[in-house]
Amino acid sequence: MTVHNDRALGRARRRVARIRGFYVHLITYLVVNSLLATIDLIAGTTGDEVVIGLDWAYWSIIFWGVIVVADAVTTFVLTAVLNDRWEQRRLDHYMRQHHPSH
To answer: Are residues 57 and 36 in contact, defined by beta-carbon separation less than 8 angstroms?
Structure first.
């Protein structure tokens, strides 16, 4: 393999690991929050439920959900926009500005 192919393989492995990490995070979120919501519903209500019969589990669902969405954005959206072509354009631009002899 050439150096270019080795770098491409390394980038691909990091990308796949990042996507896998997101899915592990998502599954953990779904399992844990399902358990918390079930416990909250079974434990009974005090009459002051805020969200669909939940007294407290909704806090975890909401705040952790925001983190999962942010993780999804950085995993799928930003990496699609800030890809290898973007990186190469930025490198070329930097080299032209700061090292015009190259």
So the answer is: yes
